[in-house]
Amino acid sequence: MDNSIQNIALLFSLYLRPTLLNQIARIFAATSSKTPLLLEGPPGIGKTHVVTQVCKLLSKDCERINMSADTSLDQLIGCIIPRCIDGRRVFEWQDGKVVDALRNHRWILFNELNLASPEVLEGLIPLFYRGSKEFIVPSINEHVDTSSALIFATMNPATIGRGRSKLPRSISNLFTIVQLEDYKEDELRIILSDLFRFDINKLTVNNEQL
């Protein structure tokens, strides 16, 4: 194992198993295309973790935004809010998480994208256009540079339910979709053996229990 692979292993805090290496390679390949990247796979396989750690490897700041049915466009894009300045009530624009990330040249990760409402997804569509150089903030008609931005999204399959829906084709077609695999049983045993090495050495846990 050369130094670069060792560094990746240290960063991910796990032995690099073939499945994880394959996931990392797919993400690196997709980032080179500069198109929005959607990672889909079973719960608990580390979709979000892989993205955030790849960003760290590339020295890129990443804004993680957890989506839900309650997420609003005001939270993401921004809104006009009242403030009290010198005893007077004034109204000012306040950037949402997405616009703030774009202004500060951070990459953006939408976690559990298919939990968002249709209204929110519709409002984000201009951000997903391939080759787009700017995002127009609707309420104030301001053009925000997106040339250095990269968009990631993760989602669990809609078949598991719990408020998840299948993404409309008009949105999924804007992404490069990467299907991530679950870890194989032998890989999980190796990972668990590493995590519980101390207990195994103390004989409080054995391999059969893993």
UniProtKB/TrEMBL annotation:
GO biological process, one term: ribosomal large subunit assembly
Domain of life according to the entry: Eukaryota
Residue stretches making up the AAA+ ATPase domain: 33-202
Keywords carried by this UniProt record: ATP-binding, Nucleotide-binding
The keyword Nucleotide-binding appears for this protein: yes
InterPro entries associated with the record: AAA+_ATPase (IPR003593), ATPase_dyneun-rel_AAA (IPR011704), P-loop_NTPase (IPR027417)
Matching Gene3D superfamilies: P-loop containing nucleotide triphosphate hydrolases (3.40.50.300)
GO cellular component, as recorded: nucleus; preribosome, large subunit precursor
Any one Gene Ontology molecular-function term assigned to this protein's record: ATP hydrolysis activity
Descriptive protein name: AAA+ ATPase domain-containing protein
